[in-house]
Specification:
The structure is a homodimer of 150-residue chains. Chain A is mainly α and 150 residues long. Helices cover 69% and strands 8% of the residues of chain A. In chain A, β2 (88-92) and β3 (100-104) form a beta hairpin. In chain A, α1 runs antiparallel to α6. Chain A starts with 7 loop residues before the first helix and ends with a helix. In chain A, 27% of the residues are buried. Chain B binds a DNA duplex (30 and 30 nucleotides) through residues 27, 30-31, 34, 43-46, 60-62, 65, 70-78, 81, 96-100.
Chain lengths: 150, 150
DNA sequence: CAGGAATGAGTTGTGTGCAACTTGATTGCG
DNA sequence: CGCAATCAAGTTGCACACAACTCATTCCTG
């Protein structure tokens, strides 16, 4: 809560700056991740999908989409590329024929070892302290929640 | 700055959460902006370009790209769409024939009036206080600076 | 002053991201 | 039971975002 009055003009500038900062930060992260993931042959969204599978095991497309807030229009071609790369298999669910289960292959499981050093490099590259990272995560989470509720 | 020891595993999880939060927040903002800008016929990146032109007047493509951290591969088609929409003109610079100056048309200038209420709606939708917005802007700016320096 | 390096736009190709739609399977209500 | 509503994937179309490239112009150095 600010104890000082804030002019309308300043508010509008602040909004622009926050939105722009978010846009810029997201792309800056993307750039560094792109570099870090290049040797793994993964893009950042593909890496996010692999993280989900490494952590939770086989999951239907729908569930992955819920975790990452991505729809089938984004996930379907992405998963096809992961399948073409030999990292996952896509198999129709037996219980519900509408559903497709995504399962790691041997190569997909093994890739985890090579991916382990990535987050540490990213963490160092941000230049933030653990406290600041927690603050950032908290604020971003609240913003996302509020915006999604709109 | 943390006074408590932090395990490696927790650090890695924190990194994932921050990166994912950033990705998610950026897309959540995009979604709300998409809605707010729909009646103006602008996408969010197009809106960013218009903001630059409204604030700074005619500028070469290069300068706009520096302000928004976008390269010509992104800006060229985007500016062509703005030109097709009748909002800007593209004219070769007289001093430097390599350079293209982007200039608002009458319609582009007038659009500003209709765009004015947008940031206030966004500000309200975030649900954050002014203090929190400043903190968020500061952290994002530092992250982007650090990542760009890599 | 000449010619190669550097610069500013633009083009091409790949990969998201999302809206709108299609297809096939399941659910549930009358 | 039967059929409409719902649901999960996938497809299509459009708009970024970026790497790698081309082309024309300008700079700069020998």
């Amino acid at each position: 809560m600010s104890s000082l009055p804030v002019s309308d003009a300043e508010l509008l500038r602040l909004d622009h700056q926050v939105c722009f900062s978010l846009h810029a930060a997201s792309r800056a992260f993307g750039g560094v991740y792109r570099e870090a993931l290049k040797e793994l042959g993964l893009t950042y969204p593909q890496y996010l999908v692999m993280l989900v599978l490494w952590e939770h095991g086989p999951e239907p497309v729908k569930r992955i989409g819920e975790r990452l807030r991505l729809d089938s229009g984004t996930l379907s071609p992405l998963l096809k590329r992961l399948e073409a790369a030999g990292l996952v298999r896509r198999e129709r669910s037996a219980e519900d024929e509408r559903s497709v289960i995504i399962r790691l292959t041997g190569a997909g499981t093994e890739l985890r070892e090579r991916a382990l050093p990535v987050p540490r490099r990213m963490l160092a590259a941000t230049g933030l302290t653990v406290e600041e990272l927690r603050t950032l995560r908290g604020l971003l989470g609240r913003v996302t929640g509020a915006l999604d509720a709109t």
